[in-house]
Amino acid sequence: MSKDLTKGSIFKNIFLMAIPTMIGFSAQMIYDLVDLYWIGKISSQAIAGITIFTTIFWVVESLNEIIGSSSISLISQAFGRKDIKSTNIAIEQTITFKFLMALIAAIILSIFLKPIMYLFTDIETVNMGLEYGYIRLFFLPIMFSSYSVNTALRCIGDPKTPMFIMIFVSILNIFLDPIFMFDKTPFLSIPGFNLGVFGAAVATIISQSIAFFIGFYFLFSGKRGIKPSLKGLLKLNKNVDISLMTIGLPNGFEIFLRNLSNTFILGFISVFGNNALAANGIAGRIFGFAFMPLVGLSMGSSTIIGQSLGANDVKRAEDSSKMAAFLSISFMMIFTIIILFFSQNILSLFTDNIEVIKFGSDFLIFGSIGLIFLGYGFGLATAFSGSGYNIPFFISSMISRWGVQLPFLIVFIKILNFDINWVWASFLFADLAETIVSVSFYNKGKWKLKRVK
């Protein structure tokens, strides 16, 4: 059922929205970690190849972020105004427009993927990454559409349906992975397809496709207080599509610049060999899991903020962002404490390569400290996505990644030839810079005046 978030306890509403989102995304990240566990059974070289592909692949995430962040503002504020017709149109256009953009992005990236990957490592490692990657690109429109369906449900106050969908498909993924990857399924001793890393990709696209169709059914069933139409998916709405491309454009540029910077950073990591690349891949997935509380709080709080601003309740929106900041930093402190004591134990679950474990452990320690700062800024920044004032995301990424982290790496790795720990330290300084920028923009308060239609 949909939910009016302009009333009731802010703390309770944030958790009612955030916890299902956290659980759903955590289930997905658990799958990603299990996926990495099975890939690690093939080799650390396979992990390195898929890490390179994934880093490049997520550059196109900027398109998803542009349209997705725009849709949060459009859908939640329309729903907060009780304008069901506009809510339906925003949902229809989000799905259709994002599908088309994903199709274009997949075609372009497929042309340039191979030569880009060759910049980082040897041909055998690249081939493993491509074996996994090409089919993922082919199904990119389904992946983006699945995100759209889940976002729409959350924006109308229904986070539980996406949660159950994500849990179901994650369990399915975990079951399918070894069946498609190996000739005999571990622990079950039943015949498998022996497709290696390609099998891991197949399991992923099957689960993503099922997630999309289940979510699509619930969203269009008319049982959630809204009724988007199939007919509305077959045409573009110029005004809405312009809003979808412009409201979230700064946020999309932020994601693009962040992911593009990650590609350059990967170049600095590759200097230290495939074991460093593999460590970055494993630690990155672990950070992804730790980031889920922030994602849940962000989606929960930004929806409350969007609905509150739609109802012109600025005080409630401000209180929601501050509550999200407090909760975010609390979760990140807990994660940091766990990492400080158990980082090597966690990494040893994915590989027995001593150097990979050492590299990954150091990265986790530096990065988790940075996440404490980032958690606070991330919580306050929910005010930007809920209001549709997304310029701070772009500026924070420019300063933190391109103004701080990459120059830091050029000086300490390229010029001074320091060891890899200085690569990991660069993430800490970048996160600190990003937090300072976000807090500064939040305190200026321009987001309080922003409305979208």
UniProtKB/TrEMBL annotation:
InterPro entries on file: MATE_fam, MATE_MdtK, MdtK-like
Keyword Ion transport: yes
Pfam families (UniProt xref): MatE
A biological-process GO annotation: monoatomic ion transport
Membrane-spanning ranges: 12-31, 37-60, 99-120, 132-149, 161-181, 193-220, 289-311, 323-343, 363-384, 422-443
CDD domains linked to this entry: MATE_NorM_like
Key words, A-Z: Antiport, Cell membrane, Ion transport, Membrane, Transmembrane, Transmembrane helix, Transport
Name of the protein: Multidrug-efflux transporter
